Amino acid sequence: MRPTRQTLSGWGNHPRVPCAVYAPDRAARLSALVSQDVEHALIARGLGRSYGDAATNHDAGVVDCTGLDRFIAFDESTGTLTAEAGVSYADLIDVLLPRGWFPLVTPGTKFVTLGGAIAADVHGKNHHRDGSFNACVESFTLLTPTGELLDCSRGSNADVFWATLGGMGLTGFIQAATIKLRRVKSPYMNVTTTRVKNLDAMLDHFTKTDHDFTYSVAWIDCLAKGAALGRGVVLQGEHAEPESGRNTLPRKRSKTVPFDFPGFALNPLSVRAFNGLYYATHGSGAAREDINTYFYPLDTVHHWNRIYGRRGFVQYQPVFPQCDGDQGVRAVIEKLVDAKRSSFLAVLKQMGGHEAGPLGFPMKGLTLAVDLPRAPGIEAFLSELDRLVLEHGGRVYLAKDGSMSADTFRQMYPRLDEFKAVKERLDPQGVLSSDQSRRLGITEQA
Question: Model-level pTM greater than 0.85?
Fold first, then answer.
């Protein structure tokens, strides 16, 4: 199979690097690619929604797995689906939501493949109750760099199963996965909205109410300061019962950002105006929303990442342990306010203490995610945030990372050696690596 030369980036549009892209459209062709004597490193790629350099390979190989998008089997009685790794959440929802099934765990976009969901062990608004994507994964078939096919589950090749979940594609290529879905009665949500005046009020609200809701997340105004520091809007949801005349998803006209915005479009003044408007127009109350509006609000705007301009942006997401979560979140928000680093997309939620692999991100506590334009000094600022996260016992999500140092990574992920032992057994020649894995010291520099 011959590659094509393409310039790729993560969803943050930085860095943009030349890659040799392979695009198998059958499992047999993927196996043939892995068995041939490829002269450079390889990494799998789905729909490119990791934000940094986890699915890029400068002057090396990227395997586009989106052509492996077949549904293999579905058990209507149990909601158990087996599908190839390139099947996306969008595919799954289009086919199975009309039949009353929805993903047990979903991230904030449906443009993610099953393989990508496993590689990043994605999480959603219900982590405090249901955990991350691994909670719904029953098994998967992994093609290792040596050409071996492994059936992986909690009971078979368990160390490989857990290393692959959150392993950022570094253990092998997922051919197919079997997952459990959630039975729902309609494509709508009952959403309870609560406006809170500051971070203390928000955390108090989480403590008092999260146990009553399957889904809970908050938008935060990261430019508010003083007594309003951390003010925001909490959005808590439950799947709704059927309602006469409103049991199909409404058709919405998709919008597109046709070009990169100029760099001056997003600045503290424009973001402050947006945040003030959002806070003012989202009062407390209850409403019925369709699933797309609640879970995937940005998916209706194609190429929304272009809003940040040619320089791109960072989505920075740390998690802090429960014992120090409020102080860690407060320290990051104060740092953003002091530095006047504007973000109109900032979300906060609680995470549960569910099982994770050696490179798993979640821990019981609080996680904050903020979008930051790439502006002068951003790398040094991110290093300062990393130090704050370490001081409070937290770690940064690998699917969002694009700048962490190898030393910081090792401190944040103390089970790294456990992961590397599994990887080295599966990939003795070091075939699988990415720009991220080399930067973080998970794999050797080329």
Answer: yes
